[in-house]
Amino acid sequence: MRICTVIGLIYSILAIPGLSFSSDLASLAKEGYSLVEETRIAGDYGDYQGCVASKSLRFTNGKVFICSTFGYDNSQYMPVVYVLKNKDGAIKIVINGKEYSGTFRDGQ
Q1: What pTM does this model have?
Q2: Contact 107, 78 (CB under 8 A)
């Protein structure tokens, strides 16, 4: 009985989507990126459907990210955004375990 409980607990932990971010973070860290902040997509339910080149994403911290890569994502209300930066100033964001490149609107 205890073995089943332990196996179930391990499976539950491994199935948590947020934990997939740690492997993304590890691979981006090997590329020289470090986490600079955590925020959320601002807007109404269904507003966020991924990143499209030249599309603006508004964050709850007031910043606006301009996508330079494409990636469709299932709509989710205010998903968490991890902002990463490397020593050269290149920026990547990770949303729902998906990595996107781009820049912040001037002055941000």
Answers
A1: 0.74
A2: no
